[in-house]
């Protein structure tokens, strides 16, 4: 069994999470001020983006900090928001402007950091590990924050820590225009008192379940034995909450495949696959491949519009089929189902390769026709999932979506090996 220990090295990473404050609202405000310098600054009054401004239908997609203070929530119906605050100023979404500002924002980050991973339209992780910045990260954070504010006109929060999870949690502390650190030795003081629902990746349903058991803060979850969390939440979510509440995350800041045209994975099979063993031998391979493709898509915030399945037969020829999806996806389950459909087309039936006597030696699954997250128009579905503003990548809420479950399954495997037998919880490098 592979044993993974968290080493000192992992606590020497230097990771920033940079998050635009009330992004859509700020960007609408900045654009308005650019067009009319006399206009009121939407950020300074109760205001919100979303819905149909005339008919007052639809839902709130972003709100100003003063609106937030009045209890206006993201994803709530405009009608309800107006009941709370009749003077709420509503503005229409303007995705063209949002994409432009997002692009300028990322451009500045790339100027400063060697590795930038855009996590959604308004947030990114930066990795300064091994650079001079690591000795005085707050100074660099201030330089980035001020440059964005002074040259683009909107503010960001910067969270600094040794991993993405903690940096992300830190950037969510007091806003706007602030820098916060959340180093491992600050977790107890700064993160543990927070309500469990504030833990990144802890969805509403997960939080409610934990609260039922009296686990109300992140700190209470952190000191709850892993087995207990697993018995409440199941293997995957239990392990995820346990790790996260303890500030553990080893996810890399990765811009790899940023410009990739496709994400695919393939596997050579040790036995020849034919009609008889396709279900027992072939399908588990497809499952694994679909999960790995989904994981990489999600990690990079990319969605595939077309799914491809390929096989190499015993005559060493490669054949593939592809299918365009109605909506692009990074959902492992959908990728798997689509790939199975494509393989059945190729292999089964009177015209299929099996009928012609071929055997399969290799199976491949891939996603092409990629859609980067920041260019993906927000759908109602995204909003309902609570992903309206931060359409983030790999640490999505554990109680939602097959893709997330798949990821958690994988995490569980890692953790199983990590905590198995005499594995060290937070080990030292020997
Ligand atoms: Mg934001």
Structural description of this entry:
With 430 residues, the protein is of the alpha+beta class. Among the domains are: 23-95, MutS, DNA mismatch repair protein, domain I; 191-245, 5' to 3' exonuclease, C-terminal subdomain (DNA polymerase, domain 1), CATH 1.10.150.20; 262-419, DNA polymerase, Y-family, little finger domain (Dna Ligase, domain 1, 2-Layer Sandwich). Helices cover 39% and strands 21% of the residues. It has 15 helices and twelve strands. It has helices at residues 23-35, 65-69, 78-84, 95-112, 137-152, 164-171, 187-191, 204-212, 218-222, 226-233, 235-245, 278-299, 332-347, 380-384, 402-419, and strands spanning 15-20, 47-52, 57-63, 89-91, 115-120, 123-127, 156-161, 179-181, 263-273, 302-313, 318-329, 360-372. The protein has a five-stranded mixed beta sheet. It has a four-stranded antiparallel beta sheet with strand order 9-12-10-11. β2 and β3 form a beta hairpin. α11 (235-245) crosses α15 (402-419) and α12 (278-299) crosses α13. The longest helix is centred in the C-terminal third of the chain and has 22 residues, at 278-299. Residues 1-6, 374-400 and 411-430 have low confidence and may be disordered. Magnesium ion is lined by residues 19-20, 23, 122-123, 389-390.
């Amino acid at each position: 069994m592979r044993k993974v220990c968290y080493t000192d090295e992992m606590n020497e990473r230097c990771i920033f999470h940079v998050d635009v404050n009330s992004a859509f609202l700020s960007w609408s405000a900045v654009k308005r001020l650019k067009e009319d310098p006399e206009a009121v600054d939407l950020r300074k009054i109760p205001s919100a983006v979303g819905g149909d401004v005339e008919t007052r239908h639809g839902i709130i997609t972003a709100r100003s900090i003063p609106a937030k203070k009045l209890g206006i929530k993201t994803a709530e119906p405009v009608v309800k928001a107006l009941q709370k605050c009749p003077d709420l100023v509503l503005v229409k979404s303007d995705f063209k402007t949002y994409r432009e500002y997002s692009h300028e924002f990322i451009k500045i980050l790339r100027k400063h950091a060697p590795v930038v991973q855009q996590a959604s339209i308004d947030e990114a992780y930066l990795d300064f590990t091994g650079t001079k910045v690591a000795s005085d990260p707050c100074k660099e954070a201030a330089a980035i924050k001020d440059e964005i504010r002074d040259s683009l006109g909107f503010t960001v929060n910067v969270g600094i820590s040794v991993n993405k999870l903690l940096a992300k949690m830190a950037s969510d502390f007091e806003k706007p225009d602030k820098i916060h650190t959340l180093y491992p030795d600050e977790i107890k003081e700064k993160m543990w008192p927070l309500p469990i629902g504030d833990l990144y990746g802890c969805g509403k349903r997960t939080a409610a379940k934990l609260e039922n058991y009296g686990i109300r803060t992140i700190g209470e979850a952190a000191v709850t034995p892993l087995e207990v969390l697993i018995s409440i939440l199941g293997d995957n979510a239990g392990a995820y909450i346990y790790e996260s509440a303890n500030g553990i995350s080893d996810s890399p800041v990765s811009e790899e495949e940023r410009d990739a045209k496709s994400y695919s994975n393939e596997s050579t099979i040790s036995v020849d696959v034919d009609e008889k063993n396709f279900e027992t031998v072939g399908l588990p391979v497809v499952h694994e491949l679909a999960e790995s493709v989904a994981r990489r898509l999600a990690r990079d915030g990319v969605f595939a519009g077309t799914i491809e399945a390929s096989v190499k037969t015993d005559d060493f020829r490669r054949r593939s089929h592809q299918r365009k999806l109605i909506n692009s996806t990074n959902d492992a389950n959908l990728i798997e189902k689509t790939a199975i459909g494509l393989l059945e087309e190729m292999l089964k039936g009177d015209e299929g390769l099996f009928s012609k006597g071929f055997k399969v030696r290799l199976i491949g699954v891939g996603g092409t026709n990629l859609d980067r997250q920041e260019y993906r128009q927000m759908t109602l579905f995204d909003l309902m999932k609570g992903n309206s503003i931060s359409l983030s990548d790999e640490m999505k809420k554990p109680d939602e979506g097959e893709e997330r479950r798949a990821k958690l399954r994988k995490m569980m495997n890692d953790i199983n090996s990590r905590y198995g037998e005499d594995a060290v919880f937070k080990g030292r490098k020997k």
